[in-house]
Amino acid sequence: MTGTVNLQQAEEAINKAKKEVNNRFRLGYHIMAPANWINDPNGFVQFKGAFHVFYQHHPYSTDWGPMHWGHVISKDLVNWEHLPIALAPGDYCDKDGCFSGSAVDNDGELTLIYTGHHYVDKDKDLFYQNQNIAVSSDGVHFDKVIENPVISAPPPDSSQHFRDPKVWKHEDHWYMVVGNSSKDETGRVILYRSINLRNWDYIGVLAESDGTNGYMWECPDFFEIGGKYVLMISPQGMDAKDDCYNNLFQTGYLVGDYSYDTNTFNHGAFKELDYGHDFYAVQTLKDDNGRRIAIGWMDMWESYMPTKEDGWCGALTLPREITLDGQDRIRMNPVDELELLRLDENTICHKKVTSKSIAAETTEDLLEIKAVIDLASSNTKNIQMKISYSCGQHTLITYDAEREKLILSVAGGKGLRSVALKNSGQLLLRIYLDRSSIEIFANHGEATMTSRIYPEGNRRELTLLSNGEFTVNEFTYWKLKDIWK
Ligand code: FRU
């Protein structure tokens, strides 16, 4: 019964803490906890028609601590509601934390598969991790099963890092990928198979680092899309290289061909998924309409998180639809449902205008911005979208058409981020601005950049500018709805 008592205490703590939250940076249309710390999205699943997202949560503090699973639900991927905390740690199988994992609909039983975390020494350098299951028929209240742990230890050639199970069904079997590190500190993903979600057979290594891709691969996800297989991973320990891998840890993917019969995954090189400052631990689902949708943690370990002073910390990204292009590159685009957020539309220009600067001013803080620039007929090599705040901060998005790069500059000492973006003659920018985040989707998801920003003041100026003349086909912004009010 420890679990139930811990859940009640956690719920009381969060109900108390939410009364103390300062709203200045609270997001208007992103998933957050009512208060206190969150990190990875977990258990992203569609169950009995509704979308469920769980998240790593510490209900007692704005810092990371013994991990619980927070829980939100939505009918449309846009309007989310909090449900009671789903998992609390403290049982024999998950003494020091319910770490990341996934969810499946097992014939009407919502099943969570998660990592139990256990410290074995006081200074917390030594721990062990196992895999566990909790089930629910109503999708709200979960029971940990008596068979836990369903996988008690990793294979013998493994280090202590053994976490973040992602489970899916293929033909008659359940499959599970787990994030792992070998004894010699090579990041890798290992594969298990089961017929009943309780008894698991170890199949082997699905993929591992070639020596350049880090010492530990967290949060794996493996799925088929467009006739190929994609392994998404969040490696720790990659060195920065030019525009790539500039955050503390990365999230990216491998694309290739896979054989279930022989467990062989022939794949290409690791590619980064999002080039902003704050994107990690992504998880996907295939929805009832066959779309592959991804949600990530919209922060990065050890980065500047001023909302801790405000009684909360951490958020998830918008849901993004994933597709694979002809060059085996993933594109991420905001799901169509996000148009439900749109309130007032403001068209700054909707037909060809040639200028050096076009500006609009607004007091709205939840915005979607769309700009279509005709680069082919512009007399400039450099075009910028500048978002200036009344506090004096600004966020600058620059497209350098000569170097074919999109560059993001945000305030707060976070440094620049840039990503290659081909000059196709037209630049399409779709930007979602929330009170403390920006998500940029360029050229139909060819490049995305996600970052946390912390501006204050109630006025924003949106300016398209350049040192030469440019031609704009469309420049529109929408005031967006606050789903939490
Ligand atoms: C990724 C991660 C996971 C782990 C969880 C703990 O951000 O480190 O590997 O399960 O966070 O909160």
Q: Compute the gyration radius: what is it?
A: 22 Å
Q: Which ligands occur here?
A: beta-D-fructofuranose
Largest sheet: number of strands, sense, barrel closure: 11 strands, antiparallel
Mean pLDDT: 96
- The total domain count is 2
Distance between the amino and carboxyl termini: 35 Å
- So what's the oligomer here? single chain
Number of strands: 33
CATH-derived architecture of the largest domain: 5 Propeller
Percent of sequence in beta strands? over 45%
- The proportion of residues forming helix, as a percent range, comes to under 10%
What attributes does this structure have?
single chain; 485 residues; mainly beta; Tachylectin-2, Chain A; Jelly Rolls; 2 domains; 11-stranded antiparallel β-sheet; 5-stranded mixed β-sheet; 1 helix; 33 strands; globular; binds beta-D-fructofuranose
Provide a brief overview of the structure:
With 485 residues, the chain is mainly beta.
